[in-house]
Amino acid sequence: MARTPAPPTEAEKRLLAETARIPVARARLEHLFDEDSFLEIGADITHRAEGFGLEGRRIAGDGVVTGVGTIHGRTVHAYAQERTVLGGSLGQAHAAKIARLLDLALESGTPLVAINDSGGARIQEGVDALGGYGDIFVRSVRASGRIPQIALVCGPCAGGAVYSPALMDFTIMVDGTSTMFLTGPRVVRTVTFEDVSAEELGGGRLHATTTGVAHFLADTDLDAIGHARRLLEYLPDAWDRPLPDRAPEDPADRDISGISALLPTSPRTPYDVRAIIEVIVDRESFLEVQADWAANIVVGFARIEGRPIGVVANQPLVQAGCLDSAASRKAARFIRTCNAFGLPLVTLIDVPGFLPGRDEERQGAITHGSKLLFAWCEATVPRISVILRKAYGGAYIVMNSRHIGGDVNLAWPTAEIAVMGARGAVEVLFRKALADADDPEEAQARAEAEYTERFLNPRQAAERGYVDAVIPPAETRRRIAASLRHLRHKNTSLPTTRNRNLPT
Ligand code: HXC
Question: Could you confirm whether 405 is annotated as catalytic?
């Protein structure tokens, strides 16, 4: 997709000037960390490989800068690959530097940021390079769920340089300059004779909209660095460390009475659930994740009374908010990320069901939908939900219902909790009777009205205790804030296993 690049900002001009003097990797790290806080580790390390002219290309650092510093005053380990050194490719020494950094980050309980700009395993080093990726992958997976790992992709990346981000918690790409693919266009052409551009094969826009590989799409390198810094404001240093709370600036009882007007009066009219999220959470605290992929569900970080939370919400604006394979994968992953790092989950529900049809079934909707169910059933952090409008069928159960472990389940008076909508239900239940009726249309309308009166409200669920309270919309923020306070020391643990067997 052709785009006219925005003119460089002053900060970008400075970055470019610095880049001319010092390698790109070091400049990127300087911008990532708080000023003057970065300390490099192993700057003199070089490779010892020979052949293919490598002996004449021993460059201090071996194409990767590794080190430690502070971001918002908190310790973070980071590395950045340098494309101008052997294409940023990863040889044994380069890999050993990254593996050591991962060990340091895990042992000291700090987040890790990886700035990838690499063509993958260094071809000239053969199995030493492949083994180097193995050393990194195993450490990254063992650190998964223990320390936050954020990958930036700031250039053409291939092979291990894309698997490595995929094993981390978040991937940030740069529009127009970064690409991610297992094998680059030249290799593709040689092997399959397919002619495809780098952008088509693995451009940032593709990964942010179609594959979901990228969680954020930045405009520039500096913007990508800004995303990483902002993301860390919501994450703890490690899974067993406190959340980065802020002093509450936005009162829990702020007047939000305007919220009712955001829900259309007709249950069939779409609306943007993000407007409702923005009203409920602390002002300007919402950070949407994977905004342009599977937009029928919205996930993101926010704060309530200064404390980080994860938000999951059906989006009636897209596909009427139906759940499908991509939405299930997106939400499942986000729920598991929040659960790993101790962020309470707040869920807003308005879902007419799972998207039916041949395409969905053929994509493996059963397995993908199960991922979402699995993620909720496994989550032990505080879980609060509010049913705004529809909660139908399997989607009612899957969206953090009481039955699968929701802690506080609320509903607005407009909630409709049923196996399905009125029209579908009446057609299934009374098809024969309606056909035999003197006035089928009148009989259908009567049956639908009876069904609507009986089920399309939160009454039955509240009577059975599946909904804890039916609340006026204006009470939502206050009630969620209070529930988060009450659940703060919730302590549930699952039985230990080697691993639970996530549907894949
Ligand atoms: C050694 C490499 C390299 C690599 C690039 N270079 N990739 N050197 N090993 N893997 C070098 C080039 O030789 C060149 O060196 C310089 O980097 C820039 O590369 P160009 O091709 O000129 O750049 P560009 O046109 O921007 O293309 C970038 C690229 C392409 C798309 C990444 O270089 C490419 O396709 N590389 C191979 C990618 C790949 O297939 N990697 C998979 C490795 S296997 P000079 O000296 O000319 O400047 C792997 C397995 C891991 O990673 C395990 C996974 C489970």
Answer: no
Please indicate whether residue 394 is annotated as part of the active site: yes
Q: Is 184 in the pocket of ligand 1 (CB under 6 A)?
A: yes
**Helical segments of 204-245, H only:** 204-206, 221-232
Q: Which amino acid is at 99?
A: A
Between CA 60 and CA 85 the distance in angstroms is: 10
Q: What are phi and psi of 314, to 5 degrees?
A: -65, 150
User: Does 458 sit in the ligand 1 pocket, CB within 6 Å?
Assistant: no
Q: Catalogue all structural domains in the chain, each as residue range(s) with its CATH number.
A: 10-231 (3.90.226.10), 257-419+457-486 (3.90.226.10), 422-455 (no CATH)
Tokens 């390198």 sit at which residue?
A: 221
Q: Residue 468: name the closest of 390, 424, 410, 381 by CA.
A: 410
Kindly calculate the radius of gyration of the chain based on its CA atoms and give it in whole angstroms.
Answer: 25
Residue 273: both structure tokens together: 């659930």
Is the CB of 121 within 6 Å of ligand 1?
A: yes
Pocket test for ligand 1, best of 116, 123, 199 (most atoms within 8 A of CB): 123
Question: Is 155 annotated as catalytic?
Answer: no
Of 176, 158, 184, 286, nearest to 224 by C-alpha is 176
* Cα 28 to chain centroid, rounded: 24
Tell which residue, 100, 42, 96, 106, has the closest CA to residue 75: 106
Q: Is the Cβ atom of 186 under 6 angstroms away from ligand 1?
A: yes
Atom 32 in ligand 1: residue holding the nearest Cα: 119
Q: Which amino acid is at 426?
A: V
- What would the DSSP string read from start to end of 320-365? GG-B-HHHHHHHHHHHHHHHHTT--EEEEEEE--BPPSHHHHHTTH
What pLDDT score was predicted for residue 16? 58
Q: In order along the chain (504 residues), what is the average pLDDT of each group of 10 residues?
A: 65 58 82 97 93 90 96 98 94 98 98 97 97 98 98 96 98 96 94 95 98 97 97 98 97 97 94 98 98 98 98 98 98 98 98 94 95 98 98 96 98 96 91 90 93 93 97 98 98 94 94
The predicted pLDDT at position 1 comes to 46
Q: Which residues pair with 80 in a beta bridge?
A: 65, 115
Active site residue 160: yes
Determine whether the shortest distance from the Cβ of 163 to ligand 1 is under 6 A. yes
Q: What is the 3-state secondary structure (H, E, C) of 467-502?
A: CCEECCHHHHHHHHHHHHHHCCCCCCCCCCCCCCCC
Choose, from 155, 160, 184, 300, the residue flagged as catalytic: 160
